[in-house]
């Protein structure tokens, strides 16, 4: 029964690390202007997911965090993963990573550069296309891992509630 919460919790932790890493990587690639809010929110989501997983692991070992506290943090992480995934999906709508025409004007992908070009990317059109294509692939993966994080957060909450209810039923039985 314990594995019902541990396995999804491990995946929640891994996906949160991936989301944080991809979002930070996209933020570091912002060469002009400030980082788009979507990318910053992705970093927040990854960090919150890591925190929720750590609290969840601690809740498996202590009765103090088990129940409403871990459910509330997992619920918050669940909503954050879903909102982040939707924000990235909306921000990336209509982009085709292999078509520079659909990616260059996207604020998440262009790194702050505009239609006039960007000296930071070196001016070589092939290098620019490869950089933007790489950022596009990372952003789409970030969105996918946020949705996966949401799904596993749901599994974690359901498993935790089931495990908690089952634990209460066993402790209340008369022997």
TrEMBL record:
InterPro entries registered for this protein in UniProt: Marvel, NCE102-like
Bilayer topology annotation: Multi-pass membrane protein
Location(s) in or outside the cell: Membrane
Subcellular location, principal: membrane
MARVEL domain: residues covered: 5-155
Protein name in the entry: MARVEL domain-containing protein
GO biological process, one term: eisosome assembly
Keywords associated with the record: Membrane, Transmembrane, Transmembrane helix
A GO CC term attached to the entry: plasma membrane
Membrane-spanning intervals of the chain: 39-61, 68-92, 143-163
PANTHER family reported for this sequence: MARVEL DOMAIN-CONTAINING PROTEIN (PTHR28165:SF2), NON-CLASSICAL EXPORT PROTEIN 2-RELATED (PTHR28165)
Annotated source species: Elaphomyces granulatus
Stretch forming the signal peptide: none
């Amino acid at each position: 029964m314990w594995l019902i919460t541990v396995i999804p919790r491990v995946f929640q932790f891994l996906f949160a690390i991936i989301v944080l890493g991809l979002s930070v990587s996209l933020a570091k690639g912002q060469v002009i202007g400030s980082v788009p809010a979507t990318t910053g929110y992705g970093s927040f989501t990854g960090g919150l997911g890591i925190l929720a997983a750590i609290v969840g692991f601690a809740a498996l070992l202590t009765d103090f965090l088990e129940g409403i506290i871990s459910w509330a943090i997992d619920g918050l992480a669940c909503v954050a993963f879903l909102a982040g995934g939707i924000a990235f999906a909306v921000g990336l709508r209509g982009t085709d990573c292999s078509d520079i025409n659909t990616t260059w004007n996207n604020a998440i992908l262009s790194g702050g550069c505009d239609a006039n070009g960007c000296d930071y990317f070196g001016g070589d059109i092939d290098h620019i296309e490869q950089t933007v294509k790489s950022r596009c692939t990372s952003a789409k993966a970030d969105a996918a891992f946020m949705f996966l994080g949401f799904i596993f957060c749901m599994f974690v909450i359901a498993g935790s509630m089931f495990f908690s209810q089952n634990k209460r039923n066993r402790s209340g039985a008369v022997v």
